Amino acid sequence: MTTRNSNLWAGLRAEIPLLIGVFPFGLIYGALALSSGLTPAQAQMMSSIVFAGSSQFIAVQLFHEAAPGLVIVLTIAVVNLRHMLYSASLAPYVSSLPMRWKVLLSYLLTDEAYAPTVIHYEEQGVTQYSHWFYLAAGFALWFTWQVSTALGIFLGSSIPESWPLAFALPLTFIAMVVPVLKTRPAVASALSAGITALAAYSMPYKLGLIVAAVVGIVVGTYLEGIQPRGDVL
Amino acid sequence: MNTWLVMLLGGLVTFAIRFSFIYLFGKFHIPETVRSALHYVPPAVLSAIVFPELFLQAGTLDVSVHNVRLLAGLVAIVVAWYSKNTLLTIVIGMLALILFQWLL
Fold it and tell me: What span, in angstroms and rounded, lies between the C-alpha atoms of A174 and B92?
C-alpha cells in the first residue's frame, strides 16, 4: 500500500545515509571556495545554480588558477556528462509525468539522488506516487548541500592561513578516482589522461586538461572494446 | 568571462545534461559506444587534474623525494585504495603533507 506520504518518507529515509556522507563535502567546498577567491555569495550560489559537487570543486580549482571562463564551463560539462547516463536510466520511469515535474526532477538529479531512486524504481516499479520518493531524496540532498555549503563558508574564514588547505582539492579527487580504478581500461584511462596532462600542461587556456580528458576517455573506451568483459584487475 | 556568467552557463549546461534523456525519452537512443565512453569520464578528468598537482613544482616535473605533495599524494592513494573512504583519505593526506613538510 503506497501513498504520497509513505513515498516521501521512504525517499527521505533512503537518502539519510548519503546525507551524512555529503555533509562534510559541503563544508569543505564552502571553505575552499572562499580560499580560492570566490565571494561568499558566489560560493553559495554555485551550490544552487550548478548543484553538482565534484564539478564545483573542479570549478573552484580552475577559478583559483584563473582559467578562462569558457574552459571552466566546458570542464563542468565534461565532469557532469555522467549525469546523462542517469537521465537515460530514469527517463522511462518519469515519462508519464507533467513537464514541470520532469524539469524539477532533472534539476535534482545528482549521483546521491539517483542511487536510491533507481533502486526504488527497480524494486517497486512505477506507482502513482513513486515520483514523491525521488523528490524527497533529491530535495533532502539539495537542502543538505546548501546548508553544509553555508556552514563551510562561515567556518572557512576561521581556518588559519598556514594550513595547506588547497591540497584538500587534489586529495578529494584522489579519493574519488582511486575507487573507480577497478578494471584495466579504467587504470589505463587514468594513467594516459594523467601523463597527457603533464605533457600538455603548458598549453594555453588550461586546454591541456580538456585534451588529457579526451585522451583518457578514448583510451578507456578503446581498451574496453578490444578486451573481453569482466576482465578485472 | 565574469564569474557569475561562468556559474550561470555551468548551471545551464549541467541542467541540460540532466534533462537530456528525461526530455528526449522515446525520441532517441544512446549508442553503446557513447554509453561506455561516459564511464571513463571520471577517471580521465580527475587524473588529468591530480597528476599536475602532484608531479609539477612551479610548472616543472619533480619526481624527487623533496616533492612533498607527491609523497603525500601517494599516501592518500594507498589510503583511498584500502579504505574507499573519502573523508579519511583527505584527513590522512593532509596530515601526511604537514608531516613531510616538517620533516624535509
Answer: 12
Cβ-based burial of A203 (10 A; exposed 0-12, middle 13-18, buried ≥19): middle
Beta partners for residue B57, in sequence order = B60
| Whole-complex ipTM | 0.86
The verdict on a CB contact (< 8 Å) between B44 and A84 is: no
Contact criterion met (CB < 8 Å) for B42 and A180: yes
Cell digits of residue A50 = 550548478
* B31 interface with A at CB cutoff 8 Å: no
> Cβ distance A52 to A80 under 8 Å?
yes
pTM beyond cutoff 0.80: no
State yes or no: pLDDT of A192 exceeds 90. Answer: yes
> For residue B34, what are the CA distances in angstroms to A42, A156, A224?
34, 40, 12
Find the residue in A nearest to B5 (Cα): A69
A118 at interface of B, judged by CB pairs closer than 8 A:
no
